[in-house]
Amino acid sequence: MRSVQQKQDRSRKTHHMHNSSIFFSAVPKNYQHVLSLVFAVNEVNENPNILSNITLGFQIYDSYCDAKMTYQNTLNLISHHRKTIPNYKCGKERSMFFGRLKQIFLAYLFIKLKNNNKTTLFFQHSITYSSLTPAVSKKDPISSLYQMAPSEEHQYTGIVQLLLYFQWKWVGIFVTADDKGETFVKKLTSQLSQNGICIAVTERMVTNRGFDDTGLIEKCQNMAESLSKTNVNVFVVNADKNTKTGLQWLLLIGRMMSMSPINKVWVMTADWDFSSEPYHKDLDIQNFHGALSFAIHSSEVKGFHPFLLNLNPHSEADGFIRLFWQQAFGCQFLDVETEEEFCTGEEKLESLPGAFFEMQMTSQSYSIYNAVYAVAHALHAMLKKDGKELQPFLRNILFNNSAGDTVFFNEKRELEGGFDIINWVTFPNKSFLRVKVGKLDPQAPLGSDFSIDEKIITWHQSFNQVGPSCSYSRQRKEGEPFCCYDCTPCPEGNISNQTDMDNCFQCQEDQYPNQERNHCISKKENFLSYESPLGISLALLALAFSATTALVFGIFIKHQNTPIVKANNRNLTYTLLISLLLCFLCSLLFIGRPQLLTCNLRQTAFGIIFSVAVSSVLAKTLTVVLAFMATKPGSKMRKWVGTRFSTSIVLGCASIQASICIVWLCTDPPFPDLDMHSLPEEVIVECNEGSANMFYSVLGYMGLLALVSFVVAFFARKLPDTFNEAKFITFSMLVFCSVWLSFVPSYLSTKGKYIVAVEIFSILASSAGILGCIFSPKCYIIVFKPELNSKEQLKKRNN
């Protein structure tokens, strides 16, 4: 067994970092990927609980983002170091190929085994630390290719869920003009269409190694202009290296051409990252402020930050660090002739903007970290069981890493995991923050597999409601794709509370649509309340008339023995005044929220009291007529003149009205009701009259009494009687009939509280007409002309 110190020494000897200036002149930020590999290998080699008698090492080759170099270096990995041959090299070193086949670099881990001086069988496996292209990912069952990233299908699902969450259904797609971009468009289009999301525009970026080609620049200008003018505000970006670079250049060209700002909501795939290359100094990452992207789930790895702080640019073991240091800090070391500032080695990595270097382990670096441990655990299990082939152990690997995450592969040899949703907050100095605002966990139960905290998202300052959409309903255009439609307003009373709905729907009965017809508002109650100006005015008017009637009644009581009060049956006069007082007061029953008791009392009390008042007027008129007829010699009418006759008329007429009201209350009485439909924005709280026929019978009977009184009074108005009231009764009945004849059409043409106000006004007006026409002349004589209130003066006036 080797000691930990021995393992550390051997580890230093077996780390080979091939110097590549091209690598760092292109993507200096990716140096963290290398460092995460170094960090993970060191941790394994320093851990006595795993591979205690084995030392891991590695070699790195750059692919230069070139297919030819990728294949060349792949052969280098599996061939002799000094000669590339398409065959394996057997010897003391047994190798495992570890690499990312897409973009950045190729590397392999190699181990030194010593088991009783016998060498083990040669083994080779490939592991990628990001998602593969669909063509590569179609692995056959015997393949040894493993993917240290979740299935890309999960990412498509996450994009759809994100767009649906924010109701972004009018989006664009930005890809590179190659097979990979077309595959992305095809797969994403299928899922978006199934969920009703329309792809309004697809921008394909033509890639080229250099940007000095006139044709390419012209194409970029045209595309930048197209982006600035389109009404699509949400773009889904397939963020591989070429797309990232091309999109940044497009935004720069748009700014240089003084176009409209290309401020979009960018939704990027998991490969998105900000990296500053030497020829990208003019690029402005502020265009991506507030963007959202997916990222392979990662957690904080303890020890990585101190590891970065201890980096030494003068280390000879690291062939990359000097080039990185010069690119990142814009300086040169003393052994290089340059006019630039010299590097001291004391520069602080934490002072670099995130586009150059991040002190927090990125998701790509986290995948590399887990990949190293996956190899180490698989080797540990294989050696523990004296296995000869790594494949079964790697396929069945299951462990918890130092960050607490569980690492294992599914049946397709893909990492079983999810994605984080990142909100990018950028700053003018090219620094930025990655803010985790949500996650996609395919292993979680349905409904909780996608989550996002919208409150902590930082949006671009120009962000608003994105994409044209229908606030009403959609009417599809014949012969056009599903996303081509006309917006049609919802019918009256209907709403569309979501954009791009195919059909409108009605609000509930107690709600009504707002002006935009996209939201239901609760209806307000409509009834004549004491708090409303109209209710207060009518209540004060009723009280004023009641007080006036009480005053008149008091005057008549005080002067009850005077001739003008005693004339034409004093008891009838009192009965009429009391009934008028009650008529004014019963109008208060109509104000306020309808209740069962008030609904039953409103019309019945009003009908009976008014019948008493009108029948009293009729009795007064008949008394005048009978008194005149009784003065004729030999008349038989004298026996009808008296109190008994007038009392019988009042009681008889009132009894008929009371009988009608009793039948009404017993058969189909009034009750409180809610009218939801008469007014569009209000619920009418009303007294449903129950039987409309009984209600009109009450009104009809009162009208009949008033008409008879008017006719009798009209013919008796010129009778030569000293105290003849027929003239005043005629005017009072004329007012009464006029008021109630106009009441009927007004009652039928109004709604809500105004129906109640019309009836109250009719009660007050007709009652005030009787009070004014009959009693005002008498009160004038009693109060202001008392000398005329005597038999002598009345006889003189009559003569």
From TrEMBL:
Major localisation: membrane
One function term, GO molecular function aspect: G protein-coupled receptor activity
UniProt entry tagged with the keyword Transmembrane helix: yes
Matches recorded under InterPro entries: ANF_lig-bd_rcpt (IPR001828), ATPase_P-typ_TM_dom_sf (IPR023298), GPCR_3 (IPR000337), GPCR_3_9-Cys_dom (IPR011500), GPCR_3_9-Cys_sf (IPR038550), GPCR_3_C (IPR017978), GPCR_3_Ca_sens_rcpt-rel (IPR000068), GPCR_3_CS (IPR017979)
Coiled coil ranges: none
Keywords: Cell membrane, G-protein coupled receptor, Glycoprotein, Membrane, Receptor, Signal, Transducer, Transmembrane, Transmembrane helix
GO cellular component labels: plasma membrane
SUPFAM superfamilies with a match to the protein in the record: Calcium ATPase, transmembrane domain M, Periplasmic binding protein-like I
Annotated ranges, domain G-protein coupled receptors family 3 profile: 534-798
Residue stretches spanning the membrane: 534-557, 572-592, 604-629, 641-665, 698-716, 728-748, 754-775
Protein family: Belongs to the G-protein coupled receptor 3 family.
Protein's name according to its UniProt entry: G-protein coupled receptors family 3 profile domain-containing protein
Native organism: Podarcis muralis
